[in-house]
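Reviewer comment 2.1 asked that we show a complete input and output for one of the modelled complexes. We chose the iron/sulfur cluster case, as it is the one discussed in the main text.
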Amino acid sequence: MNIAGRAHCFGDDINTDYIIASKYKTASLDPRDLARHLMEDIDPGFGQRVRQGDILVAGKNFGCGSSREGAPLVIKAAGIGVVVAPSFARIFFRNAINIGLPVFICDTSAISTGDDLEFDLEAGTGRNRSTGALIEAAPLPRVMINIVRDGGLAAHIRKHKTFQVV
Amino acid sequence: MAGKTISETILSAKSKSDARAGDIVVAALDLTYSHDGNRPLAMDLLTSMGTDKVWDPARYILFLDHHPSPNALSAAAHTKLRDFAIQQGVRLYEMGDGISHVILPERGHIAPGDLVIGSDSHSCTGGALAAFTTGVGSTDMAAAMATGQLWMRVPETILVRCSGVLPRGVAAKDLALAIAGRIGADGANYMAIEFAGSAIDALSMDGRFTLTNLAIEMGAKAGLIGTDAVTEAWLDGRLTRPWAHLTADADAVYARIVDIDASTLTPRIALPHNVDNVVAIEDLPRTRVHQVVIGTCNAARESDLAEAARILKGKRIAPGVRLIVTPSSRDTMVASMQSGVLATLVQAGAVIATPGCSGCAGGCHFAVPDVGENVLSTANRNFKGRLGNAESFIYLASPATAAASALTGWITDPREEFRA
Ligand code: SF4
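Response of the prediction step:
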């Protein structure tokens, strides 16, 4: 699965309240409506600027805070193709894989906003086409690869009735 | 073979395997729970798992704790949850009953050794009873509701050893913030934390829940405390099932050991906008407070409210300050009424809110601060915009610091109160 797009860089410890503010939780049920408010409290206007296929690049501990699955759903609804960070908060990481938002764990320190990036998610490799630098991912556990291959956790459970960890 | 941490012991039993840190296991769940706050609702995803039935209705509990029905959309979600509870035969705690993480232990739903998941990040709170309790998202919850199981990576454990005892006027919350400052917002990511040592032994269960509740703010998947006489006395009359004491093996292997001398600790404040941005109160410049919140699943239990009342008794909060008190559960509220604590707080100028999440997150649509205002809260999160206004500033502290600050209108060291 290949994904290419333009990088938008954010810092460390981006929490789920920043991804989508808690005050919108009772405003709408549709992630596409909420996508306009993506990152609003830390980068006003980002939800309007972001384009289909763009890539969200962040620092360590991306997605910390709440367990709300609305966070990865809104990122996906905004058209983001993959979230790239050196580490993800555990619950966000599981949620993203479960709902089919690709995530890629790698060093992001050499990526700048506007860089043209490409990733091969299955191979766990990528390239910064703006700088020519190669990017290598940390591998996912087997169970997560199985969930991704089945198209998300719902499809995985429908198919196996349990979790396939090997 | 080396001994086991509390997490390894529980996950071994629940996966019927010799579970060690780093292993991936599929484990049987004792209890699952959800609330009205997060979308999508796990129950809406259940059919996508190929079933329309909760695997065991006795092992799933619903809570209407997040939104005390601020608008029609939230009212509709409540109706849906109530209908689902009746149709599936699962238990539902109503609006005003309190916060899930507080009610579950209080009403005897969690026993030492249990494996519990909740669709909320602060589901780590129940770990103070030596249960492995952790938070997941809606899709993981739906899979758990369908199968009664969840895959988990057995976490490495950080042992936080707290020696000494906390000085007078220094609370479990101060210890929790001090530890968060040391470990950092992601220092325990993918890991569990065990809290042990003489300072923990001396804590009440209320204080222990404050500590384990904050584990997620260090990235941890669970925060655990072994059982002892304090646990036993607290569970007596609450837990009707048989249970056994559970502690880590003496030769358990830890990823890291963090030592804290509790006896030298002073009150701590987490500055905006990160929970690990912690300073000692004596290092804080003079800071004005516009709103004080004593509430949330972190520190608004019976003894927390009583501590605030002790400081506020016979006094009046400073002009220009709002004091919002949200008892964390109905049981807390009733006990605080009977002891006179609530009357003391109201006489001092407090507004009492519906037991639940009111005053913690903007989604509750309550106690939203104005632009430029400072809020001092006993909550567990001070993220920018958390209370519904990104132009306000949230400081975190203990109930005693919150009460002392409401009296003066400045962030105030509660230990000054002890000298009076
Ligand atoms: S009180 Fe706050 S942190 Fe606790 S469950 Fe409610 S919203 Fe979450």
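Chain A touches chain B through 46 residues (CB under 8 Å). We note this here for comparison with the apo prediction described in Section 3.2.
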